[in-house]
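Bit of a strange request maybe. I'm writing a small parser for structure token strings and I need a real example to test against, not something I typed by hand. Could someone generate the tokens for this chain?
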Amino acid sequence: MKLKAHQLPYLFMLLGVFSAFISPGKTSFCATESIMNIDEIMPGMKGYGKTVFTGNRIEMFGVEVLGILRNWEAKSNMILIRMSGDLLEKSGIIAGMSGSPVYIDNRLIGAVAYGWSFAKEPIAGVTPINEMKSTLLNVPAQEQGISLTSADWELPSFPQNEPEPGSQVTPLMSQELIHGGSGNIRLMPILSPLVVSGVEGEVLQKMQPLFNTHGLYPVQGGSYVPSANPLSRADDGIPENAPLTPGASVAAILVKGDLSAAVVGTVTYVEGDKVLAFGHPFLQTGTADLPMASAYVYAILTSQSNSVKMASPREIVGRIHQDRRAGIAGIFSESSRMVPCRIEVEGSQKLAYDFEIVDNKLLTPSLVLMATQSAVLSTERRLGEKSVDIKLSAQIDGYEKPVEIENVFYELDQSWFPLNHIVQSFAMILNNQFQKVRVNRIDIKIRVLDTRRTAYIEAIKVDKKQVKPGDTLQVDVRIKPFTGESFYQTVMMQIPEDTLPGSALNVTACDATYGQALNMGRSAGKFLPTNFEQLLHYVENMERNNNLMVRVLLPKKGVTYKGEGFPSLPTSVLSIMSVSNQSGIGPLFDEVISRIPTSYVLNGNQSIPVSVK
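Reply from user aminoacidic:
Good idea to test on real output. This should exercise your parser:
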């Protein structure tokens, strides 16, 4: 049989794929690929690219060079190409084909990585392979990557409004395009599908703005089930346990277990035990630590904005250790550290979810939030009155006792505020400015009651309007539960011995929200941590919604210094510190505080004056 000239590239590709699978026990692509430098590339040159459209079979598509965009970003070049093929003509650029290798004269030139939304033709930008190799294969071993602060992390606000009727916006577009209008259409990284299984669709919809910010498009998928014989060949003739080769689908694992999440892309280049993929950054964190897995593609979902590969991760084959502007780099036969997590939800039924989550300051809080929301939605009803008790325990390396964040909430309809409140506090610890935090385990317990357990602080009374220094003041707080009878909660308050006679005291009974406002007004410096221990104390001791707080404001004044309170200072020292020209000093109003746990989410505040004899 004679081959035509245009069929020769396909023959070379098939020979390359065949040689990669001769030894199924190998986990690397041993042959060194010939590379074409960007200076050798000219407009009009034709070649081919490789990617997976179905299953794990690597297929080819046509490529024509349109030109070179030199220095399109600082010190970065890009090869502009037009792709061709029956599927690409219909679908355009496909999310998940980032990293697809492109060849001219059977020499590798780079990875498909960039495109335009709403483009009528499959025109893409290719990251030159030499830039990927120089950036990802020659990173100094001692480099530690980018340190993230709390300003780099923010939970999604979860807007409740639906899109306006008649809107042409589709969920596959990046949020920058959605909100920026057509004036912001520009060359940008191809969206990477974040394939999630075991998670409620409503949760993915709410999380989408956050993930889109990082070029990820969350889609619901499923877990891949291998054939009974792992050495058998799939219908396409490719072994299920085949190693990653250029053009194969690759996944960066974020969550695995009862819940799973993985970002899918394409392998660009393999050299020994090293793998390059994507052609653009994942999160551009520099040094990374993510499990690297092969992936299986079920189908291509076509869309007018961006088409996407419907895929699932398969077995873990190595570790992704670099995430930079030119792409990601992985290595075979190495493992990544993941954090064991367990979520228990108790309500009309009791369910538990066990999974492992990636150890990453930026992603871990968002993924914990996503998993917790999904666990609650799949276990409890969406609408109606609910009382929710949430406790998060995190075991931190170097600390014997776990950090515990706990609070009680009331919900009329489904909202994410309770979960946001808890996870946001956890994120403050992970992204603190004082020291690195290594989390060894996360446990979350959620108790949901289909009843309204709220109460209102109606009034307070004291057993005497005049007290002496050292006296015990009895404060009776009248609490009115919802649809219940009012009752009194008695709190005994000790008046300090050094309280000045003739002074006036203010007694206040309040809920957590009002109490937190008083904290910031009377001793703000105590709630601005200056070291990690203070931060842990602040997070673990946030005002709880079921606590009845009784406070007696004293006439004495003090100062806060570097997060610590000094309420009883000599007048001379107080005068000197009050006019100090040094930062970190703030006012402190001395007070006696008692917190009494109740069975209700409290609301309201009441005050009464008391004088000192």
